[in-house]
Amino acid sequence: MAQAYQTIVIGAGSSGLNAARFLKDKTLVLDKKSEIGIPIQCGEGISIHALNRERIDLQTHWIARYITHIKRIMPNGKYIGERQKDPYAVVLNKSDFEKYLADLVKWEIRLNTRVVELKREGRLWVIQTQKGDRLYTKHVIGADGPNSLVARQVFKTKHHLIPAINYSANFEKPIPNDELHMYFGNRIAPSGYGWFFPLSKKSANVGMLIKHKGRVKDYFNHFIETTLKPLFGNFQLAENKSGVLPVDGFAESITKKQAFLVGDAGAFTDPIFGGGINMALLTGRLSAESINADNPKYYQIKINELPFTRQDLRESRKIFYGLDDITLNELGDIFNGRSTSFLNTKDGQKAFQSKPNLVKHQPAIAQFAKTWQSAKPYIW
Ligand SMILES: Cc1cc2nc3c(=O)[nH]c(=O)nc-3n(C[C@H](O)[C@H](O)[C@H](O)COP(=O)(O)OP(=O)(O)OC[C@H]3O[C@@H](n4cnc5c(N)ncnc54)[C@H](O)[C@@H]3O)c2cc1C
Asked: Are strands 89-92 and 45-47 parallel, antiparallel or unpaired?
């Protein structure tokens, strides 16, 4: 017999689970995987601010490391970013984090259930699963990740995706396990960056995101051999947590006939650094609030209220990855371990003006900095 729901959430990742957590009326969550949180396809870094905003209590069992220092490292080794007194980000144990979120959901989460088709029948959505179930619902939340079926079938959209490699790696030497490193430069990661996110005293998520699909593995191997190995000694790659990311700024259309796109399914990632958990949690909750209020427009309104647009993000990506290594090194020189707020000081402005390439790119860098500043609370 056909089953009817107020809302069906497709996808039990961070976005879908956070949506389900807030939904008030009869909801069903479907996911094709057999275990929540598995596989992990993520570097697992997120700001504490984002977790607080979503009213998620920090739990030691899903926090691998607290981070007090984010270093954005330029090709010359100099970096942007100051150590903070208190932790302001964490590296998650994301599979336990998602299991924790799932425990907060009061609705049924049906695993091993792949959705294969969505159709409109009158005022309802009919959801067809691979097992042959036909499920009726008023609302659908597409929380089904970067290759979203909901985006393709309902919104006729396919996101532009780029590959991102991430492995947990065990190192021979102790590592700075309260620091998060991001390595930039055309030699290391053209149009992207390499990262090092600590998981324990000797292990870290190491990864890379670049635009060149065919060459990401080569660049990744080169990065770990020539940048990380000299610092932390011999290493062994352990769990593969690689995947793909939408990087063109969020989807143009995100609501249609009581259907919503959230998280990666709506391309809600940070096109510059690839972060997406923050926006996944946020958009999941906003879609739920929209449904609870029986006001489908609310979701779009809330997204429009963000202090940046999809176009801002796309432009910023172009600007940042258009900078050559000489200009990046000049950024490293002037910040040299300081935070970005140094630029708002007299000394910062003086240092900036002394660098010919920075001066040449000044309008673009200012535009990038403005977007970045406004987008930061939603991205990291
Ligand atoms: C290598 C890598 C590193 C990253 N590092 C970071 C990081 O450090 N910090 C950060 O903030 N972000 C990072 N991201 C991005 C972040 O992981 C994602 O933006 C975020 O997890 C998206 O969550 P989501 O719930 O929208 O999608 P997902 O986590 O992809 O969840 C989608 C769910 O939908 C299910 N599904 C898909 N299709 C169907 C279907 N047809 N039927 C039923 N179920 C379906 C899937 O099984 C899955 O469980 C990284 C991404 C990658 C690839």
From this structure: antiparallel
